[in-house]
Amino acid sequence: MTSIRERCRTLGAFASYALSLVTFVNAYDYAVFRNWVLAALMLGLLDLYAGSAIFGHAFRVVYPPLAPLMFVASALAVVCLQPLYLLPYYPPLLLRVAVKAPLLASVIVLYKVVEARVSPEAARMVVLNVLMVALAHAYVFEYPAIALLMLALYVASPIASAVLLALATMLKHSLALAALPMLLFFLARGAAQALRYVVAYVATVSAVMAPFALANGLGMLLSSMVEFHTLRPPQGTNLWTAVLVLSGYDAGLATSISSSWPAVLAALGGLALIRIGRPRSIVDLERLTAALLVSLLLSSKVLNPHYMLWALPLIAVLAWRGAISMRAYRAYTAAGLIELAYPVFTLFGAAVLRRPFYIEEEARWMPPEEVERIVKGAFPELMPAILELVRSSPLYILFEVVYDQWHIVLPGLAAAYTVLLAYVYVELVRR
To answer: Are 431 and 275 in contact (CB under 8 A)?
Structure first.
């Protein structure tokens, strides 16, 4: 009976992954990603980071170079055949499949890595997790990044490990946190291995960034990758955002938070290093890497649902090994679902109610007609019908209450998220 249930669950998850090839729920992000392709065609691939200075904020690139390169390369494979595909606000079907295919391939790679290096059961715990399945319907760079991260953890060579992690970092720079545990791991094997690791990591990052730095200047490159995130106001179901909402989005408070949260990260990360110590086994390496990533998720002023993918494979593996409890794995998943509720109750809820939506990264209220356009664009074949269905159901009342009482609901969600993730952190750092 259990076997049949597991098979049905597996089939359902992979059916959802297959469906995700034609969905693109973060239509707001696509409007920016599409402009990367336009900038590449007009300015040249190496001048992507100059796009915002020339064409405006909608052409911003706030990721390390491999992220825009991956999207542009995938899109150009189709756009070269049909340039008009770039005109619609929402990507046509063939373009969706082209850009999403590398993400789905990354899920398969991730599954195979965990299956080969840990166990088939642990691999299923990773790829069948509800967060992994749900977030595949967006376009996020986390899938290839975490596949590279897990590969980096399990290769024996310090050079190969460094190259793989550097490539992951060039997709999502937050994963640079994993460089410290890996350096300490190889240092335990000798100074020569640690030196090879450092040289290979720095060389790989430099090789990826150098062409763009030469074309745009290192200052512009670093400003694009760092300044946007530094100045970004709090966002997501964290306590920082809750305080900001209760203050009425006070600009001075947002600035104070931006200078305060790194101290919390340093304290949590430092405690994890002290408690776990220098990793000498692969389990210690998994534990310390997960602890540092969870420290970031606990302390960061900005959260998005897809950030929860950073530590998910490690949490699943550690739970399967018995290094942390299955309760911690479920708590991490629950925290991710709370974070996933944020865009559902804010952006989607505003579209259901035909009301404005406050978009933090632009510090403005988005008018109802723009909100509805974005939400319908998430899946134009079905989303208009879904919106009408919700509007005519009792769920409308739920969305209305949450919208009107957001100043109460958000602190409650943030408190629950923090408690759940704090529990996971304690499990990771205890000996």
So the answer is: yes
Greater pLDDT, 396 or 250: 396
| Span 107-135, average pLDDT | 95
Helix (H) or strand (E) holding 359: strand 357-359
Q: What is the CA radius of gyration of the chain?
A: 21
The two beta strands, 357-359 and 364-366, are antiparallel
Of 35-44, 137-146, 218-227, 397-406, the range with the lowest mean pLDDT is: 218-227
Q: Confidence class of residue 92 from pLDDT cuts 50, 70 and 90?
A: confident
The full set of domain ranges for the chain reads 232-431
- pLDDT bracket for residue 1 (50, 70, 90): very low
In terms of DSSP H, where are the helices of 56-92?
66-79
Burial class (CB in 10 A: 0-12, 13-18, 19+), 92: middle
Least Cα distance to 86 among 42, 54, 46, 44 occurs for 42
Q: Which of 371, 342, 339, 341 is nearest to 354 (CA)?
A: 371
Q: Which two tokens stand for residue 16?
A: 């959802």
Residue with tokens 């590279």: 148
A 10 A CB-CB count for 394 gives 7
Residue 374 per-residue DSSP state: H
Encoded tokens for 148: 């590279």
Phi, psi for residue 243 in degrees, rounded to 5: -65, -40
Residue with tokens 């209450």: 401
Residue with tokens 């949490």: 315
pTM metric for this prediction: 0.94
* Token pair recorded at residue 413: 């969600």
Residue that has been written with the tokens 């088939």 in this structure = 120
The identity of residue 400, as a single letter, is E
* Tokens representing residue 32 in the block: 């920016």
Q: Is the pLDDT score of 236 beyond 80?
A: yes
The span from the CA of 24 to the CA of 19, in Å, is 10
Name the DSSP letter for residue 364.
E
Residues 73 and 278: their CA atoms lie apart, in Å, by: 40
The answer on pLDDT for 286 being more than 90 is yes
Q: How far apart are the C-alpha atoms of 125 and 10, rounded to whole Å? A: 10
Structure tokens at 215: 């074309």
